[in-house]
User: Fold this.
Amino acid sequence: MSIRLYNALTKQKETFRPLIEGKVRIYVCGITAYDVCHIGHARSAVVFDVITRYLRYQCYDVTYVKNFTDVDDKIIVKANAERGTIFEISERYIREHDEDMDILRIARPTYAPKATEHIDGMIHLIKVLFNRGLAYEIEGDVYYAVEKFPGYGKLSGRTLEDMMAGARVDVSEKKKNPLDFALWKASKEGEPWWESPWGRGRPGWHIECSVMSQHFLGETFDIHGGGEDLIFPHHENEIAQSEGATGKPLANYWVYNGFVTVNGEKMSKSLGNFVTVKDILKNYHPEVLRLFMLQSHYKSPVDFSDESLADARMGMERFYTTLNSINEALSCCEDFSGITRETLSAVDSDVCGKLASLSDRFKEAMDDDFNTPRAIGYIFDAVRVVNGYMADKKSRISPETCFVLYHAGKAILETGRVLGVFFDSPADYFRQDRHREAGKRGLDVKEIERMIEERRATRLAKDWKKADEIRHALAEKKIILKDGPAGTTWKIE
RNA sequence: GGCGGCAUAGCCAAGUGGUUAAGGCAGCGGUCUGCAAAACCGUUAUUCAUCGGUUCGAAUCCGAUUGCCGCCUCCA
Assistant:
């Protein structure tokens, strides 16, 4: 069993073979720290989180690096506008980024370096490029001479001629070739600067990733990733810099997540449809956002809307409802330590077998280019099997049943957690959901619970008419009551 | 203009050469329930944008057409 993944460099699915047996080194381009994270950042983070979780689940020792760009035009503009330093701006947004990612249950990268921590390395790399005749300096700016690097365009699948034909190339007087890009920029008045052999300046955008990836992962590493918009020019330029300097491949597999659109439109500040992670987390559980994203393949574009999130919430409710039922059944469970697969009845054994196959099917799906939609389909299958089993066994909880349910719950939790979901207890999940939904609709939780308490008394008195009146009054507000043996619980539709 | 991607049920979405086209949401019928909810069972695409072609056989490969989208400028 081996993982196959789509390599954007070769444009085909390939068998994944890490450079060092058992170890995987991944570099993903992170954010430029000048604003809060939006759902596009969230998708990229979720995709690579799931990839690293799955690789670790498959017992790989993963080193995952995700950088922060903390010096850049937009940060400088914002710092000047606020009469602060670029560090005040970048530190603020890095902190916000980390908070958002933690809530989204994104495992922290092994290393999260900042560009400004590696200025010396950048200067060193630029010197190497000079020595190799790939860089030139004009008035304190240093440019990369793209026509000197034969492989330029190999990742994005275009040639220099193609690119020259495009009318949108910015023609700068200084550059020898309009496609040359800045490695180092002379700092203007009011801009941050570092000393360099070419005078006071600051780094170009692409050089940081070449330096930091090499610093943490070596000259060649396994997987380089990011959003698909980074293919050109960012990663094309990284390849030119790194491979131009070392003569070795930068990374063996190039993996890109598709974009998020909002109601069918590209997210942009001018359209005013910029959805931040914080906006979503006000209205939905973080795992709902993850489920929504993972129900599409990572390479596909995904369209975000309130309806699609609401659908994902219903799906998540199905999972947690089953997890809850398993917990309830096991809470009154008998000792099943003496039970083994071999001692089970045919029916019990059959269910146990079906649940045991979840893990294999899950791996089969994930091995195929991290096919999370299929993997999730298999978890839903398992949920149906275990629900059917519980419906059959309703009132007869035996040690054998407990054994089966215990293993069923374990299998579902284990697979789900590779996807970064099912980390809450069901009780917690539903409590949060009630409060969140009540908040969205301006409903008073205390008042709802008071009415349920009132209804409890009428039910004890078997006054069904009055009980139903209360049920219907709450139903008008989309509040659904569930009468169970342990009392009445509620949720919002 | 150049490069690339996508089109599968009411909606979302797997499947990319061969038994009944996963799964979720929504809907409908039934079981269960004091009534509900949840759950379960059944049901909802003779067909995969359109038209041709290759093949014993195609949603899956090839060509054309239509429609949508991304990149080529900062962008996850």
About this structure: Residues 313-424 of chain A form a domain with the Four Helix Bundle (Hemerythrin (Met), subunit A) fold (CATH 1.20.120.640). Chain A has three domains: 4-283, 313-424, 443-492. The first helix of chain A runs from residue 39 to 57. The mean pLDDT of chain A is 93.
